[in-house]
Amino acid sequence: MKKLLAAMIACTFATVAFAQDKMKDETKKAEATPAPMKDATPKAAAPAKAADKKKMAADKKKMAADKKKMAADKKKMAADKSKEEMKKDVKKP
């Protein structure tokens, strides 16, 4: 029984060591592979970047408009609430 347990533990450690070594190899391959792709990417992506910038600017303007609208709605709700409170105070005497 002790030998079986020792064999299982040794097998587990060997599997972990093998997996870690394999992960290191895959990481090295992954780091080496994209280098040629990086050279080709900026030329092809230049028009897309301009379009993305325009889209981001439009989104930013839309977000600013939405923020202003929310602020206006918040002010209106506060004004309506104060009017309701004033009406309640007037009816109480």
Distance between the termini: 91 Å
Q: How would you sum up the global shape?
A: elongated
Q: Give the beta-strand count.
A: 0
Mean pLDDT: 80
Helix tally equals: 2
Largest sheet: none
Question: How are helices and strands ordered from N to C?
Answer: HH
Q: What are the low-pLDDT stretches, counting only 5+ consecutive residues below 50?
A: none
Spatial extent as radius of gyration: 33 Å
Descriptive terms for the model:
93 residues, mainly alpha, 2 helices, 96% helix, elongated
Quick synopsis:
The chain is mainly alpha-helical.
Give an overview of the whole structure:
This protein is mostly helical and 93 residues long. The protein is 96% helix and 0% strand. The chain has helices at 2-32, 34-91. It is elongated, with a radius of gyration of 33 Å.
Helix-strand layout with pairing:
Blueprint: H1 2-32, H2 34-91
